[in-house]
Amino acid sequence: MTDRLVRRKARRLPYVFALGLAPAFALAWGCGDDDAATTGARVNVDPGGTWGAEVAVTVVGRGRVITSVPGVDCPSGSCFAKYVFPNNAADGATGGIQLTAAATTGAKFLGWSFEPANVGARGRGPDGCNPVTRAATIPSVSASDATISLPFGEVDGTSPIGKEGTCGGFTKVPLAYKVTATFDAELPPIDAGFDGGADDPVYESPDIGATATGGLGLTNSGGLYWKYSNGGTDAIAYGSNPGSTSTGQTAIKVATAPVIQNFRVTRNGVIYTDGQSVFAIRSSSPTSPTSVGTTATTGTCLGFAMDSSSNVYCRTTTTIVRWPFSGISYGAFVTLYGSGVPSGTDIAVDTTSGPIYLDTGTGASSTGISSLPLLGVDGGLAAPTAIISGRSGIQNVRSGTAGFAWTELGTGIYTTTSKTAGANVTESTASTGSVFTLAQDQGNSTGWIAAGTSGIFIAELGSTASAFRTGNGFTSAAASSQYVFWTSPNDGRIHRARRF
């Protein structure tokens, strides 16, 4: 196993090139050093403009990135090219530079990610006023599209320290982008699963020796996420195509922290905290965690939710707050309810119009599920509306497309066929044992899947649960229309088996 993983890691080859824009097709380019020798009629030029785009791209895995700039295609080594428009009115300056990810035959493109690192550039001032630094831009593009377009522009950078006054007139520089294009590496051979081949280990956690610690979940876009631990550090892994017929696919490590808490995969994305800051991974940017806010002012978040517009919700012991998503970043939090919030830990919000669903009570005293209106609240004056009541020890409350599901004191699965007061409750009769996780069945809008001490169980709304696997080797589970996925103790793999 170790040799195979080392071989796979060795195939993750990094390639880098940088791009810019120039008027009248003036082009500076080369392979290797930025000041490399010229080739043919193309010469290093300095057009004197500050409008354009400089792009640094790292290629990981078996693929290449081709640009809309004629002749620029760097699958290996490092290349440099620079185009700069004299101003934003120049011919072609209103467009952008196009990047296309081209996978090697048999490989797959897994997605783009962007880094907001500080980047230096030469401004229009004298040598003493350079380099001008500015943060790389995070564009509004789909991380999963093979072809993306990065707009041209310019930005005010920062002069060298101590020269801000004398160099203040020379801080304009083109936009900068730091992009990583990730392709899957060489696929390892298929291994038999722990039950003699009845399951396929479709993913390995990205770090050798890691242990998948659970929280497995699928988003609406089909991405699979899970949390794992390696050497005392927590991380989050992402699998872009868990429904592929190929086993042994390459997972991407999308986040790492000393401790990852309240890790939650919802239909709309992922939310988690490192104990101080809150982060979201939206379905539209599946490999790019976005900073949401901190808990320094909101208080500890006991539960998280994300609605269909990527707004993030935090439930504390006394309040409910929301961080609104603008389409680019998250704004300052808004307190939706500053009082009148019942005790509990679970929260669910499906759409931007609400309502907010909450469990009521904690531990054995958690007796029901209530709703609060999301719009039109005023300082927490609205009172909760009881939907489910008279229960005992409600846990793992989940809101699905057609009803609720939950467990009670860790055992059994309970479902409803509506989200209105007085909804009928169905109790599963299968011996589920203590349930660790409960998730929406992405292959069935009225179904749920649970993992626990007795196995993996699939429950339909309004009917009993059926055992998909029995035994105590499961810590979390998720389901698509074709497969059931699960994690096991002391194992870094994600297993799967066909559900029919």
Q: Summarize this, please?
A:
The protein has 500 residues and is mainly beta.
Provide tags for this entry.
500 residues, mainly beta, Methylamine Dehydrogenase, Chain H, 2 domains, eight-stranded mixed β-sheet, five-stranded mixed β-sheet, 42 strands, disordered N terminus
Please give a structural write-up:
The chain has 500 residues and is an all-beta fold. The relative contact order is 0.09. The two termini are 30 Å apart. Strands 1, 2, 3, 5, 6, 8, 12 and 13 form an eight-stranded mixed sheet that branches. The chain has two domains: 182 residues, no CATH class; 299 residues, 7 Propeller (Methylamine Dehydrogenase, Chain H), CATH 2.130.10.
Q: Could you tell me the strand content as a percent range?
A: 35-45%
Oligomer: single chain
Number of strands: 42
Given the structure, what is the number of helices?
1
User: Remind me, CATH topology of the largest domain?
Assistant: Methylamine Dehydrogenase, Chain H
Category by helix and strand content? mainly beta
User: Which CATH architecture of the largest domain?
Assistant: 7 Propeller
Mean pLDDT: 79
CATH uppermost class of the largest domain: Mainly Beta
Spell out the blueprint of helices and strands.
Blueprint (H helix, E strand, L loop, with lengths): L1 H9 L4 E5 L8 E4 L19 E10 L2 E5 L10 E5 L1 E2 L10 E8 L5 E6 L3 E4 L10 E4 L11 E5 L2 E3 L15 E12 L16 E5 L6 E8 L5 E7 L2 E7 L9 E2 L1 E6 L3 E6 L2 E5 L3 E6 L7 E5 L8 E4 L5 E4 L4 E4 L10 E4 L9 E3 L6 E5 L7 E5 L12 E4 L5 E6 L4 E5 L2 E6 L8 E3 L7 E6 L6 E6 L2 E6 L4 E6 L5 E4 L3 E5 L5 E6 L2
Parallel strand pairs: 1-5, 3-13, 14-18
Antiparallel strand pairs: 1-3, 2-5, 3-6, 4-7, 7-11, 8-13, 9-10, 12-13, 14-42, 15-16, 16-17, 17-19, 20-21, 21-22, 22-23, 24-25, 25-26, 26-27, 28-29, 29-30, 30-31, 32-33, 33-34, 34-35, 36-37, 37-38, 38-39, 40-41, 41-42
